[in-house]
Specification:
Blueprint: E1 6-8, H1 36-46, E2 52-55, H2 60-76, E3 80-86, H3 93-106, E4 110-115, H4 123-140, E5 145-147, H5 152-164, H6 169-172, E6 178-180, E7 191-193, H7 201-211, E8 215-217, H8 227-234, H9 240-271, E9 272-274, E10 280-282, H10 284-288, H11 292-307, H12 317-326, E11 331-333, E12 336-338, E13 343-346, E14 363-365, E15 370-373, E16 377-381, E17 385-389, E18 410-414, E19 419-421, E20 431-435, H13 437-445, H14 452-455
Parallel strand pairs: 2-3, 3-4, 5-7
Antiparallel strand pairs: 1-8, 6-7, 9-10, 10-13, 11-12, 12-13, 14-17, 15-16, 16-20, 17-18, 18-19
Amino acid sequence: MRRARKLRRRVPERRRRGAPQGPPRGGPGRLLSLDLPALLARCRALCPQGPLVLALSGGGDSTALLHILADLARAEARPLHALVVDHRLRADSAAEAETAAHAARSLGAAARVLAWTDPHATQAQARLARHRLLAEAARGTGARTLFLGHTREDRIETLAMRLARAGGGRGLAAMGELDPSPVWPQGRGLRLARPLLHTTREDLRDFLEARGADWVEDPSNADPRYERVRLRTSGLGEDPRFATRLLRLGDAARGFESRVIEAAAGLLDRAASRLAWGGLALDADAWAASAPVVQSRAMEFALLSVSGAPGLPGPGRVEAALAALARSQRRTVAGVLIDEGGRLGRDPAAAGRADGTPGAAPLVLAPGEAGVFDGRLDAAAQDGLVVAVAGSRPADGLEAVPAAFRPGVPVIETASGERLAAFAPGAARYGTFTLLTGARLLHLAFPFGAGTWFDEV
């Protein structure tokens, strides 16, 4: 049976309309337009220290980045790791993943194949699943940066799709050179680096050709069922004027987003205080004095950080929380309780609802195990224990928590039956427990979390 993905060592046919169809520039001894020293400097700037970790598909883009990072790793004696996701969507996927891993090992990288076990997910779910796998593996290497091989064309296609969906400026700000990981808690503290966003696919394949390197072409890149492929084959992105204007629009959107996030980080620095039990206290007057877009973004960050939720609050949730804060009203929204004094804490329904809806699932840890409870507590157990919400049962240390918020506070249940709040001093006898409210805010506000408030994280 013929393989679905074909090993290649040639430059794909050029499709640019009106472009001369001369011989490819790649190959030994031929002139390359790729500026390797500049790319090495860019990779170094995006990840100045620690291990170099790459998400490797085996395609031309990520394979070219593998070679670039291998050069940097050798020059600076840094560890290099290649993470390959076996998506299991085709019978050949396992062999293809091993081929990519072998290529990485031949360049001195430590390669690891990650198996994805839910092939029936939607494209959006699959993307997040891959990010979770990659984030957990990258953090396991001790890295704070994960390199991705997205190119100039990837950014143009993403911008065109976002523009077609009329998602607003925020959607157009997608895919920057350095972004926080989109998954939580797996991606906490992890940044995505894309050093090839100003480099074309053609130049990268010329670079590989010059090195005599192999890569693979995924047939899904030619499957018209996918929106990106339809856009790619439409010829729209090949119009240089369209591409230039779209990239300028994206740059403008990212500039605006940066200013909003910087202002939101400043508002949190001035007007939010972390509470020892995982909540936040907000200054309603300072909030009201800020621009509406800044209020909304800062409140979004606050809701995500207190709730531990993996994704954005649903439509209208941020606005409802802002109204409750402004009116000094008690309200439950997006997994968070806001009280009359502007304090935010985990929704008491984390312990379960009266209609029988279950709350946060307990985290059971054996001796020496670690995990994250409810997206809010990083726990490493010395002895076997269970982390759960307090609910209506008493626990040492809960007296420091306002009564309305106690049911949602994380507590430790030991094998001997002792129950104590995870933030209580006595909890240190059983392991290490860190509330993630501040870490989540810092993650979301990257790269502007430099104020004194964030220094407490």
